[in-house]
Amino acid sequence: MQALVQTMGFNVRFKVRSPQRDETADAGRLHAIERAVITAIASAEAEEQGLKRRLEQARARLSILVGNDTYEDLDREEHTDQQLTASEREFSAAEQRLGQLISHLEHLHRVLETVKPQ
């Protein structure tokens, strides 16, 4: 489509894209964002599942280290206590990361909903 604009006595001609071409360009940009968000979601979900799996395995191993006798903690060896303390810190950090991932995934899903075509 051509448009003629009169500016200060000069004729200036310029071309405007067709509405279909504009729509295609806009849809392409939104599709690129959608693909990027879907990739980010898949990555965060994989991290979340891997972290959950490692936490479950570590909990199982840790339960053996802790023991289940009533007063077992009273005669536990010092290095075992140190391992337990270190494990507690790691579990705390892992659970904090899981919370961050859950929040991040919720946000990514909201973003995805805003860029998906209606």
Tell me the structural class.
mainly alpha
Q: What is the strand content?
A: 5-15%
How far is the N terminus from the C terminus? Answer: 28 Å
Radius of gyration: 29 Å
**Helix-strand pattern:** EEHH
The total of beta strands comes to 2
User: What's the number of structural domains?
Assistant: 1
Helical run tally: 2
Principal-axes geometry comes out as rod-shaped
Top keywords for this entry?
2 helices, 118 residues, two-stranded antiparallel ribbon
Please provide a written account of the structure.
This protein is mostly helical. It has one domain. It is 73% helix and 10% strand. The chain has 2 helices and 2 strands, in the order ββαα. A two-stranded antiparallel ribbon has the order 1-2. It is rod-shaped and about 90 Å long. The protein starts with a strand and ends with a helix.
